[in-house]
Specification:
Length: 402
């Protein structure tokens, strides 16, 4: 068993330990110590990073035999004493988020009897999955209650109890462990069995902010940020809001209305452009057919057009095949990345969908359609290369019906 120093002192960032073993592990080394302050991935909380002497700790694993394995970048001599150092910035960030999760989960439970089913601490934010759906008003109330507890700077106490003793305690969530339990208590607010690292008082959480929420597996997934993460997100949103309001020349309170106005204007403009492209398609289609390349009994049109969107290219290609049933068309937009419309007249002996599938497989695009008309985009290649490849495919393509 590895003596887990973080159980009793989450603020400990340096320690000395004896190296029990050091085994090769996929070009790295797996080191076991007699004691450690490094927290392993467990309970939704990621592992600590830092150093063991000159070795860099890249992962920490809680093994089934009760030992903790430190994955390091170089060999460490067995039997020696090594000094461990924890990356305090990462450790404290995890302490803020995990303690904030206890407080937020307790607030949902106390106010609305909503249980937290799981917790995940990510790199940028953390989430809790609640057992049933909650409303925006309930989320606001739970957030307000959580920050009341933060502001009151209540003690966060770590203690141990047997499974029998714990059954008589008001745990927020019953533990299934049969051995001794580590309990984390937010004074007069929450009591939970937990092996994670936590701040000593709720004031050190700094702030609990809910960033978003969504329906998830019959309940709600709530994204939240605490302390320095909440500050970083606020700064990012502040800068984005300032840039957007400056660009639109409106006050922050008027931003939503300004964006809605732009969206309506954009839709109206797109409708106008589409109508004009449809009218123009008939005239342009004659010009395309007139300069088509002849390949046996087939006419080929492969071109890239400026100012045409996917809908306009579709109208243009359809008009061309109506004018000349033997024509096969591949029209690209000059947008970045370009979209393509492939069309085949009834006598062209080309399967437009098959041609598009071949282009997508070769250049990483996507799309679909039928024998006579297909549409796609997202290709990872220069436009000239796409034009050349489309022409080659139209030349060799045969109708799926032949």
């Amino acid at each position: 068993m590895t003596n887990r120093l973080y159980y009793n002192d989450a603020y400990r960032v340096a320690f000395d330990a004896a190296v029990v073993s050091c085994e090769p592990c996929n070009e790295r080394f797996e080191v076991v110590l007699d004691q450690t302050a490094f927290y392993p991935t467990s309970g939704g909380q990621p592992f600590d990073i830092g150093t063991l002497g000159d070795a860099i700790v890249q992962d920490v694993i809680d093994r089934d035999d009760g030992t903790i394995a430190h994955i390091v970048d170089r060999q460490v001599a067995v039997g020696t004493t090594v000094q461990g150092a924890i990356d305090w910035r990462r450790r404290f960030d995890h302490m803020q988020q995990h303690t904030g999760q206890h407080v937020l989960s307790a607030a949902f439970d106390r106010l609305f009897a909503v249980r937290t089913e799981s917790f995940h601490l990510g790199v940028a934010s953390a989430t809790i999955d609640l057992g049933r759906e909650v409303t925006a008003q309930q989320i606001a109330a739970a957030t307000k209650e959580s920050n009341r507890i933060v502001c009151e700077d209540r003690p966060v106490i770590v203690r141990f109890a047997s499974a029998v003793e714990a059954r008589a305690m008001p745990l927020r969530k019953e533990s299934r462990r049969t051995g001794p339990l580590r309990l984390v208590e937010v004074e007069d607010f929450d009591l939970s069995a937990c092996g994670g690292t936590h701040v000593g008082r709720t004031g050190a959480i700094g702030l609990i902010a809910v960033a978003s929420w969504e329906k998830f597996r019959g309940g709600s997934r709530v994204e939240f940020l605490c302390g320095s993460r909440a500050l970083a997100r606020f700064e990012a949103w502040r800068d984005a809001l300032a840039a957007t309001t400056q660009r639109l020349s409106v006050a922050p309170a008027d931003l939503a209305a300004a964006i809605e106005k732009l969206q309506l204007e954009s839709k109206a403009l797109q409708k106008t452009v589409r109508a004009q492209q449809e009218q123009l398609a008939g005239y342009e289609a004659h010009a395309l057919v007139a300069r088509a390349e002849r390949a046996g009994d087939r006419l080929l049109v492969v071109d890239a057009l400026e100012g045409w969107d996917a809908a306009g290219l579709k109208a243009l290609a359809t008009s061309a095949t109506a004018i000349a049933p033997s024509v096969a068309v591949a029209l690209f937009s000059r947008a970045d990345p370009p979209v393509v419309v492939i069309a085949a007249g009834r006598d062209a002996q080309v399967d437009a969908a098959a041609v598009l599938k071949t282009l997508a497989a070769r250049f990483g695009g996507k799309g679909g359609g039928k024998r006579e008309l297909a549409q796609g985009g997202g290709f990872g290649a220069p436009l000239e290369q796409l034009l050349e490849a489309a022409r080659a495919e139209l030349l060799k393509a045969e109708s799926a019906d032949s």
